[in-house]
Amino acid sequence: MLVLPGGDERRGYDGDNFLLHADDLDGMRPTDLRAALKRAMDGDDVTVNITLDDRLDEDLSIAEPVALSYAHGQLLVTLCFSTDHHDVEEERIAELLGSVLRPYLQRNRSTLAGVELDPFDPSIWNITLACSTRGRDAAEMFRVGEGALALLVAYDTGKPSRETTLDLLRSGNAHVLIGQEEGPWLDVKADHYNLQTPHGKISIAQAVSRFANAENGGIVVVGIRGKKVPGGEIISSICPVPVDGRTLRQYQDAIEKYLYPPPDFLDIEAVPVNGGSLIVLHVPAQPEELKPFLVHGAIVDGRVEGAFISIVRRRGESSIPITAPAVHATLAAGRALLRRGELPKD
């Protein structure tokens, strides 16, 4: 019987594992859970399955493919990953997993601890992650496992989300995106913006502002070619661009000079790929009180109009201008709050 840390709740053992609800993990220190498992199992290894079902029923609740396990005195995260690749050698699997997961795991203070093939079904890979427990609860360890599994599924199926797209780019696996559609959160460009000219500087500022003004942010990638197809545009090839010690600074300077206000937590990085690099600009969702983001200058019929201010945002695969009525409504609302002495909370 497992007595949960911080209370008198107990969970039964069915001969193979315990079952906890994901809510049980909130605020639970990994060291306390590890100690409770050690006491319950007298030091023997055990798996703790996790369910998201509304009601916890040890007979009926469906366990998630991400679990926690106690093994060799450690609290680990385990993933059950099902793939269509049946004929991959175990050594190659470890190499593949390391390539795909390494950047994600590094950012989440975790490492790949091991991988084993299911002895009865080689399409099932049992993966173990070791997570630093410092400053995190058991729920965060579980979320690290969820993110790793989502990234593997995206790699395997070629259908990434925005978050897994960012991880695929950072891990050097941008080729997984080939054939995918550009969407409301992804914009690709084959060549560098010409940051020696006002045209290029305004263009990159507008590209970032489109996502800064959008509801959920987005990703701009330089070094990926798109192809127009009926109904939109798809990613057709990876074409890395040259990068030197000044490149990222030039992108940063152009955005700082031509975009106001500066977007919160804008991330610009170069990812090495096939002898070149991809420039990845990640624009997180921005606070509403910062919008609209304004670009100093506009491009009208191919010409730079430096005295203009342009405001654009992303809708689907297209960019649309923010209208004068929308800007006026935003300014009027702000003035009304000031008049009443109300200011947005930080």
Automatic annotation (TrEMBL):
Keywords per UniProt: ATP-binding, Nucleotide-binding
Residues annotated as domain Schlafen AlbA-2: 182-290
Protein origin, superkingdom: Bacteria
Protein's name according to its UniProt entry: ATP-binding protein
A matching Pfam family: SLFN_AlbA_2
Listed Gene3D superfamilies: Schlafen, AAA domain (3.30.950.30)
Secretion signal, residue range per the UniProt entry: none
InterPro entries xref list: Schlafen_AlbA_2_dom (IPR007421), Schlafen_AlbA_2_dom_sf (IPR038461)
Gene Ontology terms for molecular function: ATP binding
